[in-house]
Amino acid sequence: MKPLDKKIVVVTGGAGGIGGLVCDKLRSAGASVIGVDRLPCPMADETIIADLGNFDGLAKLSAELEALKPDVLLNLAGVQYFGPFSAQSKESLWSGYVINLIAPAMLSRAVLPAMRQRGHGRIVNIGSVFGAIPFAHFVSYSSAKAGLKGLSQALRRELRDTGVEVTHIAPRAVCTPLNSDQVLAFAEITKMNMDSPELVASRIVTAIIREQRDVVIGFPESLFVRINALAPAIIDRALAANDRKAAKMFN
Q: Based on the structure, what is the number of domains in the chain?
């Protein structure tokens, strides 16, 4: 018997570089996988075409998930902006918070009643090390991912003793098409560690199978997360040189 036999798993961003790998690995573990994206999800058993960037799209998808009653909701879809906060367009700012934070909250709300009624279920939120260590020039992305971490912790506490669990996973930078040429240039000049999509997908699926609560992918980033929580001024100083390098990219 496989670890996720007879489990229905919904994966947002299922057509993406990490999402496709996650869907494939979940299916190998026995799950029935429904991918959610604006494009077909070839590695999933089924696809729900949806737009996570507007209220109507989220409301329609929420209704579908209420009827579907998945065992696991994996909020993986995300978008990223890199650059001066003052230069980010209003449309990009709004959609970034909606896709990275509002969508996971609305979809989690949609699946919770059925999970609570049957006494089991899992919500998995894919955050970022950038949410635990907020980076300059990733202001909206970092703050949305910080909000997602807060959502995960608060919801986990609210669901205590219900049988419904919440997992928060924070990868560091990943080599995917989500990264713009500027992000790749920044990674090069700052020697930023970047993981492969395969590694991150494997860690996500392992966390689901092992029913882990909090996962930070990568070292020394996992150590820096702890230091930033206790003494952020130390991380301020550690990041200052790289922040100046990034600022020069936009001058």
A: 1
Q: Which of 91, 109, 80, 89 is nearest to 13 (CA)?
A: 80
Q: The CATH number of the domain where 67 resides is what? A: 3.40.50.720
Report if residue 238 sits inside a domain. Answer: yes
Instruction: Look up the pTM and report it.
Output: 0.93
Asked if residue 3 belongs to a domain, the reply is no
**1 lies in some domain:** no
Do the domain assignments include residue 18? Answer: yes
In terms of Cα–Cα distance, which of 82, 123, 124, 75 is closest to 100?
75
pLDDT in tens, 112-156: 999 999 999 999 999 999 999 999 999 999 999 999 999 999 999
Which residues are designated catalytic? 141
Do residues 237 and 209 make contact, with C-beta atoms less than 8 angstroms apart? Answer: no
Residue of 97 and 223 predicted with greater confidence: 97
- Dihedral of the alpha carbons of 174, 175, 181, 187, in degrees to the nearest 10: 60
**From the CB of residue 153, how many other CB atoms can be counted at a distance below 10 Å?**
14
* pLDDT tens figures, 196-229: 999 999 999 999 999 999 999 988 888 888 888 8
